[in-house]
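tl;dr need the bound structure. longer version: we got a ligand (magnesium ion) that a collaborator sent over and nobodys looked at where it sits. i said id run it. heres the input, straight from their email, havent touched it
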Amino acid sequence: MNATGPAASAFVEFERVQKSYDGETLVVKDLNLSVAKGEFLTMLGPSGSGKTTCLMMLAGFETATHGEIRLGGKEINNIPPHKRGIGMVFQNYALFPHMTVAENLSFPLEVRKIDKATREEKVKRALDMVQMGAFGGRRPAQLSGGQQQRIALARALVFEPELVLMDEPLGALDKQLREHMQFEITNLAHNLGITTVYVTHDQTEALTMSDRVAVFDDGVIQQLAPPDELYEQPQNSFVAQFIGENNTLHGSVEKISGGRCTVRLDDGQVIDAMPVKVAGEGERTLISIRPERVEVNSDSLGPDAHTLDAEVLEFIYMGDVFRTRLRVAGNDNFVIKTRNRADQTRLAPGEKVKIGWLPEDCRALDA
Amino acid sequence: MAEATADTATPTPGSVATGPMLAADGVPLKRSLARALRREKLRALALIAPLLIFILVSFIAPIVDMLFRSVENEIVSETLPRTVVALKDWDYESGEGPGEDVYAALYVDLVEAEEMKTHTRLGSRLNYEMTGISSLFRKTGRGIGRMDTDAYTKAITTLDAAWNEPATWIAVMDDDSARALLPETASAWSSWTRIVAANNDDIAKEEPGDFLFTTLYRDLSAATPDALAGYEGPEAARVREAAARIGSIEPVSLREQFLDIDKDWSDVQVWGTIQAFSPKYTPGYFLSAVDLQETPSGIEQQPDDQKIYRLLFKRTMFMSLAIMFSCILLGYPVAFLLSSLPLRTSNVLLILVLLPFWTSLLVRTSAWKVLLQQQGVINDVLVWMGVVADNDRLVMINNQFGTIVAMTHILLPFMILPLYSVMKTIPPTYLRAAKSLGATNWTAFWRVYFPQSVPGIGAGCILVFILSIGYYITPELVGGTTGTFISNRIAYHISSSLNWGLAAALGTILLVLVLALYWVYDRIVGIDNVNLG
Amino acid sequence: MKTKTILMTATAVVLAGAASAEEMADSMTLVSWGGAYQASQVNAYSEPYKALNPGLEVIWDESSNEAVAKLRAMNEAGNVTWDLVDVVASDAIRLCDEGLAMEFDPDELLAEGDDGTPASEDFGDLIVSDCFIPQIVYSTTFGYRTDMVGDTPPTDVCAVFDTETYPGKRSLEKRPINNMEWALICDGVSDEEVYDVLETEEGQARAFAKLDTIKDDVIWWSAGADTPQLLADGEVVMGSTYNGRLFSVIEEQKQPVAMLWDAQVFDLDGWIIPAGLPADRLARVKDFVKFATDTQRLADQAKYISYGPARQSSAPLVGKHAELGIEMAPHMPTDPNNAKHTFLYNYEWWADYRDDLDAKFQAWLAQ
Ligand SMILES: Nc1ncnc2c1ncn2[C@@H]1O[C@H](COP(=O)(O)OP(=O)(O)O)[C@@H](O)[C@H]1O
Ligand SMILES: [Mg+2]
């Protein structure tokens, strides 16, 4: 899938959308985003970065201060929420407490004036879809959190919307259930072929579920890309640090040539990196390298590769991997991960080693 | 425990699995647990004791007192003990007044009652049942001392001057056999001792009253020769002597004496009323409270021109419901607005809602008069705008409309506050969820928001309804003739007519109605569906 | 046991001795109606009395309109805190009936007239109950708006029933007393026969029938201040109230209102002493009553309010209003000019018929 998405096939489009609540600060700044039909797009970002606001503008509960939002090619800025036909799952589920599960599900069908027989049929199908067929007669308060979550999902889907919005729907669940639901939701979304805009602040969730992830910070999309690209090729230091575990080293660019650059770290050592987002030679930069791409055994590196001196501070045995904390170039929190292979050496604290990496794995980003 | 037993090398008999478990000090565990719990309960009871006593004294006791007063009727049998007994065998249906014995009993009763100033109270009491009894008793009280019964006194003391001596009487009346021989006199004598004591006089110095001679005359005339002959008590000779010559005394008809004071004493209706209200407890107040009456010939409908309470109960219920509904209509949007505002703004507005509490009830009600009366502000404005003609101004006060308006204003906060507190807890996401599911604003409100606010409506309704059926000041001031409540009548009977028994009966019925409505409410809505905030 | 009796007797003797020495309480609680009336009592009675008895504390309680009920409740609770209570004559009779008021001998309790007439003669028939200490004669009469009656100001009480000549609302007290009498008088019953007629069912029906003719034009009042206010606002063309209230509307507030003295109903207001007061309080209140009801004091009260003193000997001493400076005699209900046609409220009769007629009256009102 293309990172920007061809405008022609776009189903949901934000074009130069801005939002301000108080007339003083912009909560969403110049947002451009398009979501293809059938795509599962996640908005990921720290709390307060404007994700919910975007979702609410799309659902129609907030109006954009500026810009245009289109759904299926039609501008929807002036369409009231109930006419947009968008399914929505809220963080606290918002199941109506005075109705039974079946009544909750039947509600969107009733307001659409669908006849009773069809309604019952659809409710049953939706309940079966989330494996809650036996719970139609219960009140929401009589269900566990996970069950409520399924019902909320079923209710958002029962009237067969083309677009479903979910705002941190799994936030209230415990870890195990959350992982299970992540799987179910993606499955459902793909099987039904609906377009999903999903909001979360949990990067694992974003990475495992989405076709594409839009990383939000401060009302701006920092990067919009499929999970693997996001992880492996973060475009700026925010994304690099926000997504996955990441080691950073400070330094300044010495030389850029042939798609590589040499960076002199603050302690004087020199390493090679990919100049992804550097201002130019002599400018400060932030070096980013994933823990699993760091090599201790310099045999696997190229002959001319730069290496750094490191001192082992801590060795943690984690079963499938070893996690070793090192002091590198004045950074005490430099972590490396190595697979637990039979021949893998286990480093002991106090040991002095040389570490290095392939220049392609090391990204020089904005400082 | 099983482990503990295993650990012990030589288990004591008590700790064998089958025996009662013992606490560390060897007392059976059950008992020491019970003791600990009892101590805890006592401590808890001690903590709530002040509250409990306060509730008992200030809440339960008045209700019990009210229930008691609504049936209590001891005043008749306490004031006229002898008459009540003597009247037992009299048949009202015979259409004839009671016999001389009853008048004699009434005579002694009323002498004592007049001395104790209780006859007028009884008159007021019986006047509730039959018009005219109040003055009958007052008049009779004035006349009772001037009856011709002093003829007996003169005659008997002429026969034997010793009867004028208190000592003679004291000696005779101190003896059981004499009291058995002279039952009416003995009974009158006990009245006499009470009268003398009440006046702080010395019985040994007070000249015996006329009524004692009357009863003595009656007793001696009625005594059989055998009984007289067999009498061996004090002053036996004197008693026999008096008895022997009693026939020479001209009898005085007590019936005539009473009729001389007031001819109403021949009215069977009067006697029937006394008889009907003789028992210590009466359903009479309750009957009156539902427009029935207890008459000597049974329970009857009140005459049409006196029927009022059923109408007032109905009206009170209807008006209270109307006030309740107008409170919902006005209060709901206000509470909705308040609950959707940020806390700081809503707090300020809440103060405005509570503002009416800080002005006196009279001021608020009078303000409505100024606004609503025919020469009032609203009518003036309407006339000025040409909506109504000057000579055809709207009547908006001194009727039901005025009452509903003024009461709604006064009771509105009691609707708004519980509504607000319930609405505050309904998250706005429900409305959003409903809209996202395709509901219009109205449907979302009606199907999703409103049902969740019902507990607040329930609480507000209960408060407003109960308060309004008890309100009487406002209806009195602005209710005119069609806007008064049953509580106005209760207030009237408490403070003006002093018919506290009827007031208590009306209050009890009101209480029962409220409880019944509460029960119905519980059946329909469910009382756990009430949220007082 | 014996010693105890002796001791008790001794105490009783000491107590009796104390009482006979006229030990007087140094505080007393007087109950009245509040407003201008109570003010006149303060000015004419209690202030001069306090001047003679320095150190005495006089407490006023404005509970007269519920005095009967409150006294009964106090009596039941065994704690009567009032020493002297101002009530209308009918309430005094009722309190006396209930044994709640003290009976007394007028010549013993009350001062002789300034001309030496014994109190019982000076007050004459106004002592309508053995417990009642008369104070003033007031009347319930009609006032009318001079600007709403055209060129023919009413001179006859029957103007109240003449809605042709005097259209507009009239205010009447919400109780049968007085209204029933006026209705019969205006239905052709002579004054002397009113109560005889009213005693019969037909007579009562006749009175109600007469009242029926104006029922729609009546505003019913229950507080003495209502009619003056209604007249001042122009809500009613005429209305009944106490003559003193009308005096203040006319002379103090200068409203276009005039008196219609015709068929004014005389009533009495005075004191009762609650039954069973302790000796020292009783001694104090007796002393006060003797002072406050003497010829001069009763005449003085008329300086502040237009009610007639209950003593014959006070009449010649009635002077000018304390503030307005106008002669008060012409404003007294007993002034010959005003008392051409008067009616005396029959207490005894109403004590009998009040319960019955009140029920009928309320039923009639509610219809
Ligand atoms: N209704 C609102 N009124 C004013 N400010 C708001 C409102 N909702 C959100 N905000 C502000 O907008 C910013 C973005 O909020 P939101 O979209 O909820 O962030 P996210 O969902 O990413 O946590 C935050 O600073 C928040 O304080
Ligand atoms: Mg959010």
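gonna send this back to them w/ a short note. The first strand of chain B starts at residue 292 and ends at 295.
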